[in-house]
Every structure is written in structure tokens, then in C-alpha cells.
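Notes continue from the previous slide.

Worked example: a multi-chain complex. Inputs as given:
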Amino acid sequence: MIDTFVIPLVKILVVLNATLVAVSYMVLLERKVIAWTQSRLGPMRVGPYGVLQPIADAIKLMIKEDITPVRADRWVFTLAPIISMVPALIVYAVIPFGPTVTIFGHAVPLYVTDINVGLLYIVSVASVGVYGIILAGYASNSKYPLLASLRASAQLISYEVAVTLTLVSVILMAGSLSMVSIVLAQEQARVWYGFVQPLAFGIFFIGSLAETNRAPFDMPEAEQELTGGFHTEYSGMRFALFFLAEYANMIVVSSVATTLFLGGWLRPFPNVAWLGVLDLIPGWIWFLVKSFVFLYIFIWVRATLPRYRYDQLMRLGWKVLIPLAILNLVATAIVKVWWLA
Amino acid sequence: MITSTHYMLLSAALFMIGVIGVMVRRNIIIIFMAIELILNAVNINLIAFSHALQNAVGQVFAIFVIAVAAAEAAVGLGIILAFYRNKETLNIDEMNLMKW
Amino acid sequence: MGEAIAFYTLAAFILGFAVLVIATKDTVHSVLFLVLDFLFVAALYVLLEAPFLAVIQVLVYAGGIVVLYLFVVMLVNLKRPPEAHQDPRRRTWLGFGLSAAILAELAAIALYSSAGAAPAGPAAALPVAGNTEQVGWLLYTRYLIPFEIASMLLLVAMIGAIVLAKREL
């Protein structure tokens, strides 16, 4: 009873709440880091060093007037933020935060579930998230959101190809689609796949910047050109949902990158025996630290690099990243068949 | 107890809805979507039998059906765009230049 | 019992959304119902113990093909609805009649063919276990040539779509 119902429910609750809290504090972190990069202080008013800022933001967004444009398609307009939020959250079901641990005599795996097609599940659920963006642009019945949503969806679809191709080379290395098995395969190989697949890792990183609509690929939200992008007409909590979805997606891609390329919950250098003392730190802390580093780099890139132009973005995706990803995939397959077998 | 007959009936009903869509609607995009429904009905059948016979071949054929559906959608939507540029309409009844 | 509940719920959703797809006036709403329909079909595949197909269904249909439809619907910004000027001589009831005939035929086949026992017994055992592995193994051994032809087909379709849709090359 406890093992089949209570523990999974508790895990789902913990993961969902931790995600939402992490997302709201990501916003604060981003503002702080960008402020520090630009020699500013960032939010300082609410709480010591502004640590309560997310709560103030949430209250502000909730009590704001919620406007629906007169000519908007009401149903779709309401549905679009939900469609972009839900896939960003249900992806967490298959992300392995740590190995199986024993809590009060119950063996508890530190992931909600481990399905046989875990990685494909993540890719496919993430590909449904694009509907939120397209529909938001369409339903607003306004020209800037429409342009932004067309851009965003074209960008997402183009970069999804490159990212998925890099994932295939990782699948080839691990021989499994299950997220837990991929981490275990890295434990067995005694090396993180980021070191044996540096090209795939790089393409994955660039592609995930583009897929989460982050700078330097934040074309859909280019304020100077599109007055805010596909969520121009949204206000209050519905706008907040788009915002949360974007940050939740960032956490998803950094968790996926951690799992696939940085060894998930494994300690650094799993092949160096004298570093065994690092095993004293539990796996889920390693996982969170690695994901945090990834998220920090996301913000750092935004603070440093200027925005790409749209045609440059498309050229980079189709003429550089996809051919490189295919080459990498073919090379991986050849190495796997001729040398390792 | 759910047998493969249940799945076949579901598939037949979905197939019929698709056929009605193709026959009754005149918007060519809706007709294409109805064809997708028909292909899905076929896939349900294939996978139901794959489950009943414990044989993965049905799933392989479902993958082929999906590949063909993707090709069909790409070419078909290209034709729709080209047609729309020439005639400014999506009504399939006005696609009659090659008729006589 | 649980399977029956799951089956009937999913079947109701699949058929209901399919009817909405072909009955809705607004094309964008119709595309949305199509996505929902595909998601429920994917759930049905999970019920049939074909998780790989379920994920592929979501990835290719919901995430790929239907996005294309949505793009085209948004690109052909219609000034007049395509069905506003219906040909008065069209015989809509003929479509319903023919479809009903097809349903009767298919239902008859489904009901009568199951009376005689299906050729039971699993086919030749595959050297691998697990759904994904079995599909992959079949795809790359016994069905390698059809698989390659399918990839050729996709390539040709891709080139064809570009040639058709681009104004000048």
C-alpha cells in the first residue's frame, strides 16, 4: 500500500513543488546575476538582498487585471498558457534525481518513474509544448504575437532535429532509452558521456538554448522588434504561466544534459579511485549541483552575448548543427560497431 | 474482457468518421485531417493485432504507416499552398481545372 | 475490469474528438481537436503494451505533422470561409450513406472473423526482449529494405514539398 500509492504520490508532490519553487527563484537568480554582470545590485528591496522578491512578484501577478483582447479567440487564448505549462511539468516524471535510497526501511528510487522509453518520452512531450506558443500567437489576433509565434515555432522545430540527433548518439553509447539505464551505463563505462561525446554535448547545449528561446536565440521575444513576442497580449497569471513554462523548460534541459552528458547523480571523475571520498555526498546533491551549473551558464550566456539575426539563426541550425550532428552520429555508430564490439 | 474485436470496432468507427469527413467536408485541410484519422484507424488495428498475436511485426508496419503519413502531409500541404496561391480558395470543388 | 474502463474511456474520447475534428467550423479548432485525438490514440497504444509506438505517435503526429497543418492554416489567411459557397447540387447525404455502408461492412468483418479462432500462438521468437528492442530488431533485419524505401520516400517527399511550396528556387 505504502510502496504503491503513498510513496509515488509524495514523490510527485515533492517534485512538482520543488520545480515551482526552483522556477520562481530562477527568475530572481537571473535578475541578480545579470545585475552583477552589469555592476548593479539587482532587486534589494523585498527581504534581505531581495530574497523574497519572487513572492512579491507572484502576489503582483495574481492580483493584476486579467485582460482578454476583444477580437481574440477566447478558448484558444485561455488554453495556450496551459498547453505550454503542462508539458514543461510532466517531463519531470522520468528525470532521475538520484539512485535508489532507503528511507525509514522503504527502498525509494529518487525518480517518479523509470519507463523503458524515457528519453523519447521527454523529446515527444517537449515537442507538444510548441503548441502553446503557436496558439498564443494565433489567438491573440494581433500582428506582433503572430509573427513571434511563427518565428518561435520555426526555430523550435529546426533545432529539435539537431538536438534529437545528438540524443541518438548518446542512446547508441548507452544502448538504452531509459534515463536510469543511461546513468548506470555511464557508471559502468566509468566516464561521463560529455567527455566521449564533446561534439554532441556542444550541439545539445546550443540547441537547447534555441529550444528554450533563450538569448542569444531569443528571437521570439525580441523586444526591440516584436514588442515582447508571442505573449504581448497576455497579462496577469496567464502571462506568468508562459514565463514559468520557459524557466521550467530551462530546468528540464539542464536536468537532461546532466543525466545524459554529466553522469546524472554520479560523482565527478567516477574512474579515479582516490576521489572515492566524494561518494560521501549523496547523489541527488551532485545532480542538483550539476544542473545548477548548467542553469548558471544559461544566464551567463544571456548576459554576455548579443542576439542573433533570424536568418543567421536558421542558417546555423540547418547548415551547421544538423550536418555536424549527423556526422557525429555516423562516427559514433562506426566506432561502436568496429572498435567496441 | 476487452478482445481484439473491441479494438476492431473502435478502428472501424474511427475509419468511418474519417470517411464522412472526406465525403462531406469541402475544406481541403479538413479533408487531409480526415485522412490522418483514417490512417490512425488502420494503426489501431495493426497494433491491436500485434498485441493479440504477441508479435511485434504489426508495430513495424504501424511505423511504416506513420512514415507514409508524414510524407503525405508534407507533399499534400505543399500542394495546398501552391493551389491557394493560384486560386485564393481552399474549396475542393473549385479544384476542377484538370477535370475536363 | 480496469482495462475495460480504460478502453471505453479512451474509445469515447477518440471517437468524440474525431467527430469534433470533422464537424468544427473553425479550422484551427479542428486542428486542435486532431492533436487531442492523437494523444488519446497514443494512450490507447500504451494500453496495448506498445509504449514505443505511443511515444512515436506523439512525437511524429502531435509534434510534427499537426504543427505543419497549423502552419498552413495560419499561412493561408482566408478571406472567405471555403465552405460558404457550397455547390447546391452536392449530395451530402450520399457521403453519410456510403460511410454507413463502410461501417456496416467493417463491423461485419470484425464480428464474424473473430468467431473463428485467430491463428493463435506467438510467431517465431525474436532474439531480443522488450518492446523497443523487438521493433528495432525487426526494422533493421527482416524489414530492412522496406525501411530504406520508407526513408527514400521521406526524402522524395521533402524535396517535393520544397519544390511545391517555394515560390522561386
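Summary box: Residues 1-79 of chain C form a domain with the Four Helix Bundle (Hemerythrin (Met), subunit A) fold (CATH 1.20.120.1200). The interface with chain A takes residues 26, 28-29, 32, 35, 39, 51-52, 54-56, 58-59, 62-64, 67, 70-71, 74, 130-132 of chain C (CB under 8 Å).
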